[in-house]
Sequence to fold (574 residues):
Amino acid sequence: MTGAMTAVETAAAVRSGDRSARSVVEEALAAISEREEELHACNTVLADAAIARADAIDAAVAHGEDPGPLAGVPIALKDNLCVQGELTTCSSKILEGWRPPYTATVVERLLAAGAIPIAKTNLDEFAMGSSTENSAFGPTRNPHDKARVPGGSSGGSAAAVSAGYVPLALGSDTGGSIRQPAAFCGVVGVKPTYGRVSRYGLIAFASSLDQIGPFATTVDDAALLMETIWGPDQMDSTSIPSRPDPIGAGSDVSGLRIGIIEELTDVEGIAPEVRASVERAASGLEGSGAHVERVSIPSCAYGLSAYYLIAPAEASSNLARYDGVRYGLRVDGADVAEMNAKTRAAGFGAEVKRRIMLGTYALSAGYYDAYYGQAQKVRTLIIRDFAQAYERFDVLLSPTAPTEAFKLGAKTADPLAMYMSDVCTIPTNLAGHAAMSVPFGTGVEGLPIGVQVLAPALGESVMFTVARAVEALR
Amino acid sequence: MSPRISPEQVRHVAKLARLSITDAEASQLAEELGVILEHAEDVAALDLSDIEPTAHPIHLTNVLRDDAPKPSLDRDEVLAAAPATEDRRFRVPRIMGETQ
Fold:
């Protein structure tokens, strides 16, 4: 399994000629064949393209060229990232069979760095969900326990890394869709600062919240992937124009001020063993010289409600483009309005319809101020409260998810219960800040738990430093 | 619990969203959206009259790039993905009624 070697090690071996990219890719394909039937992490396996690319990289190395910092490293891409000419479905029937005419900026950067896209991974349809059960093509299963969900919405990417298919994957995080599945699958998952990674070629869910980020087995691998994909992009006008400073390799937390967020840690619904993991990480960091205290961020308590008004509102607008005209499914109707309505009824699954309806309602005449408008003001409060906390603290800690991975079907009948599993991750998206999940400890069922490290906007460097320190405590 | 949203309202919203729904779906959505909106009451009930709304987390204004011509997407490749085309254009059913 490629899981045995990190991305850093693989790239070094391929660049030096010690290992062929071809053998790395063949090993990854073998790992996929071995477990894919039981896990269903992938919507598409890009076997031929990956082998061709590996051979090109090996040829470059043989000619004395350097194929780049991710030379020969296989990577899985969430199936809402466009790759020209390759199936890109968002796990939705409405896009089944669609092949994008362009490639996402992050994928272009991966290719330029020598990485090898090897699979498009399963997700909750249009990234709406917390368990990957909302995929039109069937759920992904947690590699640690097939009866349990991998989390979501980037469950396929998390499972692909956790199962050892690949050392790296990309996901997207709108309310926790990278961090929560990373926690459930026992891998590292990063939600970068909003605007730090280009969204060009990421199929939009909620544009003011969506951000692409890495999955990896180690913090160092996540940093390497992060530094490959981030930075300004003219194709995304919300991309931050400044060039990012390198993340660095630090793990020294002495003198750092670390706050544990009370509203996300010490509340009902957080499993005791999850809280215990956060406490244990915190005391470990304290032992390494950090100052740790509890901090209150009162408006975090309203994050979930605000998010489930704002994200559906933006989604209802973004998903208007699936109208049966330019791409994807069409169901015929007597006129264009009927064709639109029938196409969307046949093409979208239940959760996507629910969110389009909720968002349309929250934006409709008479309800806009009470719901969408109020939620936008809560967003201001959350940003203000975080700013106050970051005057006193360098980073914050909380659980990534309230519990360890739950069983398939456990929450599908109760949308609100499903939404609750994002309660710890949502405030970061509303604020536009950075946060990541580091595996730390296990729950009563023996499944992985994630500790969340939160940092202010553009605080990736200190966030990775603390994440490395947490990783070293394991 | 009194329903916050009726099946009639659901059908109206579905029309706005260009989504055809059955009567059974309208009833189920009324119930599910009611539960979610009930939870959202904590936000709706806050007094936030002094607070400015935030639409976007970063404050970039007037992002410009050089006005340099570049090739667009390939027209035939784009049209190849469409459900129906005619004369190198997207083809759609009738937009206006015959009497309009």
Remarks:
- Chain B is about 35% helix and 5% strand.
- The mean pLDDT of chain B is 90.
